[in-house]
What does this fold into?
Amino acid sequence: MHEGCQNPATCPMGRVLSRRPGWGAVPECNTGNPATTGKGTKTNVPSLRGDPRRRRSPLVHVAVGAVGVVLQVLTSGLMMGFVYALVAVGLSIIWGVMDVINFAHGEFLMVSMYSAFWLYTLLRLDPLFSWPIEMAIVFALGYLTYKVIIRRVVDAPGLAALLATFGLSLVLRNLAQFLWTPNYRFLNETLVTDKRLILGPVVLGMPQIVAAIGSVVMTILVFYFVQRTRMGRAIQATSLDKDAAKLMGIDTEKVYAFTFGLGGACVGVAGALLSSFFPVHPESGALYSLLAFVIVALGGFGNIKGALQAGVIIGVAEALGGFYLGTQFKYAVVFLIYLLVMQVRPSGLFGW
Amino acid sequence: MLRVEGLSAGYDGVPVVFDVSFEVAEGEIVAIVGSNGAGKTTVLRAVSGLVRPMSGRIEFMGRDISGLPAHAITSLGLVHVPEGRRLFAKMTVLDNLLLGAHTVPDEKLVSVALGEVYEIFPVLKERAGQKAETLSGGEQQMLAIARGLMSRPKLLMVDEMSLGLAPILVDRVLDVLTEISKRGVTVLMVEQKVEKALEMADRAYVLQTGRVVLSGTGEELLGHPDVKKAYLGM
Ligand SMILES: Nc1ncnc2c1ncn2[C@@H]1O[C@H](COP(=O)(O)OP(=O)(O)O)[C@@H](O)[C@H]1O
Ligand SMILES: [Mg+2]
It folds into this structure.
């Protein structure tokens, strides 16, 4: 899977696929992480021949890269961690305010990525500029999800709300497959495609840099929105004590719908940022749902700062795990951390 | 200002107050007294919309408000300071006060209201940046009242202000209601501290196992033999 790519900056896939339109399945990505390159992975991807790294002798490569590679892995992990954090913040807000786990969160992300893809393909709107539209689309999707589905089940006992969002995730995924086929789609010539920043031994892909910065900015904005604005205070109050909030004159139904929208807006932005370096397909969001769940559990439910810290931890852990143990084990590392933390601190690393 | 007629209300389809009627006129302090479990809190919750009335009519400023959602009732100027204070404990004193003004759209009016409550409760100004949970019991009750005043209500309903306070604080906290009343806010209070409540109130209703059994001016009830026997220990 392409998700296995450690460093999409140097990933050849974009180029491979731009040469071969209509490519359905995605090849194993094996240039992302220099240390695992050649470790039992196929190297016959055509574009690799042009990669300058391949011309160095292995010994020189190791000598020059020993420290650099670790730095490379850490920064790549850090940058992905910020994006994970933003996705998790969206999940966390919804969870913290109305005790609903939005299982369709990853599919919201997928919708955002398709929105970015079509805006780019049909209107030539670069994701760098179209993100407010994706944000608005997924905000609306979240808002409507509450109004149409969640409102009816939010106070129902047991698993009703959880099953409802799970059902929604299936519907969205299959709808995407029906409308747009399961094929992987790529945004090949965005403003950031193939651009990179070289800092000594560390090569940072521009798409990742933009995604990381955008995610941090959005996370901070959401944090200040919740802390400082009238609506944000109403969200906090509703999450702390719903009845008392009503007595303040807060329309808690409106707050719930808005909160679902806000959670959506977070993945709306994240999806736009990811679309320039991850393939767009109906399953795009599945992994993010899972990672976001882990991050929220680690960071504490409804805790935005906690989600940011836990997101970074998971991003770095995933990158290090992929580097030292091989990409096939990186999620094992992530879930091991999760299991260990849950044994010691069930309310998360950073409490409530 | 507030007229309740034949109100029945309860939980999960089982009524706990039956056919309750009472009235509050503008400028009055009215008390509802009764022992624990009599249904006082349920009456207030029905009036403020937290509990849906099963039958009866609730009229505020000439308008039927029974069945309106709680937030809409607050917006009309009928504010309920709930039993147990229900502060937003993890939020600051200032945030709690600002939440009290959620229905006030004009930021200037919010600052004016903030200035007023700081004048009545100077201690809250000193504590503005602290989390509500760090205040003492008495200060928390002040904050609950102050938060209720932030939207400049016409009628303030206060449930068991004295609950959980040290005896020396009870009088001081209850006197705040008299001061608020002097500033032009009508007050409906619920109390288990019957004697003090009857001394303060213009009129009062005695609630027993969900029904109004007595009513009259505070003075009348203080002198009533049944009240003396049941609530004043005489
Ligand atoms: N949330 C609730 N669910 C079910 N029963 C309740 C609830 N709250 C109060 N009751 C019951 O309603 C009756 C009246 O309670 P309440 O209105 O709190 O009385 P008071 O405020 O006079 O002490 C009591 O018998 C109490 O057990
Ligand atoms: Mg009570």
User: Anything to note?
Assistant: Chain A has two domains: 1-36, 72-344. Confidence is low (pLDDT under 50) at residues 1-50 of chain A. Chain A touches chain B through 17 residues (CB under 8 Å). Strands of chain A lie at 196-199, 202-205.
